[in-house]
Amino acid sequence: MAHGLKNLFAGRQRRAADDFDKTIVNILSPYRLKDLCPPMSDAANVREQPLGEQQFKIRLAQTDAVRSAATMLVQKRYAWRGYKAGEIRKEPNRITLLAHLGDQIVGSLNIGYDSAEGLCADERYREEIDALRAQGRSVGEITKLAIDENKGNKQVLAGMINIAYLYGLIHGVTDAVIEVTPRHSPFYERMLDFKQIAGERYYEASSTNVVLMHIKLEHITERIRAVGGKGAATKERSIYPYFFAPGDQGGIMRRLQGESA
Predict the structure, then answer these.
(1) Chain segment 83-130, per-residue pLDDT in tens
(2) Do 201 and 124 form a contact (C-beta atoms < 8 A)?
(3) Which among 27, 127, 130, 164 counts the fewest CB atoms within 10 Å?
(4) Does the domain made of 2-256 have the CATH classification 3.40.630.30?
(5) How far is CA 87 from the centre of its chain?
(6) pLDDT at residue 45 above 50?
């Protein structure tokens, strides 16, 4: 599936990600998921509460004002656990995805692509990431992931990670890494199949220890093909059933490129 999706764009001129100013996807959900944000609660303690059907929209951060609002969410969620988070700024090779409920930002994550400047994780894990580069892998990273614990839900988290995955395919990414606190690494392993590839290092900007986790995008492709779009009917604990269905992935990618489906 990943190869087929990438072929959609062969020979086409790619638009800058920040030129896209429309809603990428809408997500209808009747639930909210308590404490679903990094620092995230362990899955066993997560509680869903019915709220009546809500429509979430996933968009790109387009302006400094919007990025400032996203920064407030991230800093609030991190501070709740005693960690720090820096400001979200417009930077080359970085995209900020936002989940909106009405006019309110309820979710945020940054996607970083490898370049001459490297990745944020290089500051702590240069050797491990260089090992991936030496294998010919193209590495991307997720940073500053936060979900409002009162309004976000697993569909929103899955939708945001799914969009990040599609952007990764568009940018030729083969592998993704994320730095998380040691107590939250089991969550990412259970919910997204990330694997820890390096031990604890001190993340000075966040005033906490982190570990490095890794996943191949081809594995995400396989999981989407197997359970994407099936929701709670699968009875599995990961959030892959809440990713978009395999048949929807290509259309969303075309939207990400500013093309009509």
Answers:
(1) 656 666 667 788 888 887 777 777 788 899 999 999 999 999 999 999
(2) yes
(3) 127
(4) yes
(5) 18
(6) no
Question: Cα(152)–Cα(36) distance, rounded to whole angstroms?
Answer: 7
CA proximity to 63, closest of 88, 99, 92, 84? 88
111 CB contacts (<8 Å, ≥6 apart)? 94, 95, 96, 97, 140, 141, 142, 164, 167, 168
Would you list the domain boundaries of the chain?
A: 2-256
Q: Check: CB of residue 97 under 8 Å from CB of residue 252.
A: no
Measured at the alpha carbon of residue 150, what is the angle toward residues 63 and 78, in degrees to the nearest 5?
60
Instruction: Kindly report the length of the chain.
Output: 261
Q: Which residues pair with 33 in a beta bridge?
A: 48
Q: Any bridge partners for residue 98, and if so which?
A: 59, 108
Q: Is 121 helix (H, G, I), strand (E, B) or coil?
A: coil
Buried residues in 201-233 as b, exposed as e (16+ CB within 10 A):
eebeebebebbbbbbbbeebbebbeebbbeeee
User: Which amino acid does the sequence have at 168?
Assistant: G
Please list, in sequence order, all residues whose beta carbon lies within 8 angstroms of the beta carbon of residue 1, skipping any fewer than 6 positions away. Answer: 221, 224, 225, 246, 249
What's the whole-model pTM score? 0.77
Question: CA-CA distance, 15 to 227, in Å (whole number)?
Answer: 31
Q: Please say whether the beta carbons of 213 and 196 come within 8 A.
A: yes
For residue 7, give both structure tokens.
Answer: 């072929």
For Cα atoms 251, 70, 179, give the angle at the middle one, nearest 5 degrees: 80
Considering only CA atoms, which of 81, 248, 244, 49 is closest in space to residue 151? 49
Q: At which residue do the structure tokens 């986790």 appear?
A: 213
